[in-house]
Amino acid sequence: MALLELKGIRVRYGNVEALHGIDIHVEEGEIVTLLGANGAGKSTTLLTISGLVRPCAGEVLFDGKSLLRIPAHDVVRQGIAQSPEGRRVFGTMTVVENLRLGAFSVRDKAKTAETLDWIFDLFPRLFERREQLAGTLSGGEQQMLAIGRALMAQPRLLLLDEPSLGLAPLFVRSIFETVRNISASGVTVLLVEQNARAALKLASRGYVLEVGNVVMHDTAANLLADPSVREAYLGG
């Protein structure tokens, strides 16, 4: 049984159907990436998993249990956390305050302190900036904070939406290396990323979405070598 399964998921925004019955699965311990152009349905897929968007048909199963009838904050308690597109940190709060907000579902204070130490190990710059207001951080630092905040929930599955968007190349390399370390620690990752080449080098498998449909699913290595993927997403 897969850790995460989407079966026949359809999502409508008013009269417009954004997802047309997609099927996706993620095994425990994997890094899986969703590729596609803007408007393909990638972010909608993550929001559906998180419970922030409700499908009009289909099923979302996490560890064999349906997520469709529980509110979004309980999805976090089930073991899924999301780092959203655009980072969305709380700019008038400090780095530490932002991180502690991510632990709202964790009642074990000792475990929360342990997780905070781990995040500071993953992102030493956040430790250096821990008392700084989040709104004064650089874009790369805010992305570190957004990922760290999601990890404070101690998820089994981490959803990452465009973690490299708008970042300088140095930060992009750092973020992807950290995602690899997060995976090595035992957290399963579902990644939405415009930088298709970097995502496929990181992931074990990938799905290609086009206008709300899964049009291709294969190992990352096969997708990297596929001529149609190379032409559409890798620059030829």
UniProtKB/TrEMBL annotation:
<feature type="domain" description="ABC transporter">
    <location>
        <begin position="4"/>
        <end position="236"/>
    </location>
</feature>
<dbReference type="InterPro" id="IPR027417">
    <property type="entry name" value="P-loop_NTPase"/>
</dbReference>
<protein>
    <submittedName>
        <fullName>ABC transporter ATP-binding protein</fullName>
    </submittedName>
</protein>
<keyword id="KW-0813">Transport</keyword>
<keyword id="KW-0067">ATP-binding</keyword>
<dbReference type="InterPro" id="IPR017871">
    <property type="entry name" value="ABC_transporter-like_CS"/>
</dbReference>
<dbReference type="InterPro" id="IPR003593">
    <property type="entry name" value="AAA+_ATPase"/>
</dbReference>
<comment type="similarity">
    <text>Belongs to the ABC transporter superfamily.</text>
</comment>
<dbReference type="InterPro" id="IPR052156">
    <property type="entry name" value="BCAA_Transport_ATP-bd_LivF"/>
</dbReference>
<dbReference type="InterPro" id="IPR030660">
    <property type="entry name" value="ABC_branched_ATPase_LivF/BraG"/>
</dbReference>
<dbReference type="InterPro" id="IPR003439">
    <property type="entry name" value="ABC_transporter-like_ATP-bd"/>
</dbReference>
<dbReference type="Pfam" id="PF00005">
    <property type="entry name" value="ABC_tran"/>
</dbReference>
<dbReference type="GO" id="GO:0016887">
    <property type="term" value="F:ATP hydrolysis activity"/>
</dbReference>
<keyword id="KW-0547">Nucleotide-binding</keyword>
<dbReference type="GO" id="GO:0015658">
    <property type="term" value="F:branched-chain amino acid transmembrane transporter activity"/>
</dbReference>
<dbReference type="GO" id="GO:0005524">
    <property type="term" value="F:ATP binding"/>
</dbReference>
<dbReference type="GO" id="GO:0015807">
    <property type="term" value="P:L-amino acid transport"/>
</dbReference>
<keyword id="KW-0029">Amino-acid transport</keyword>
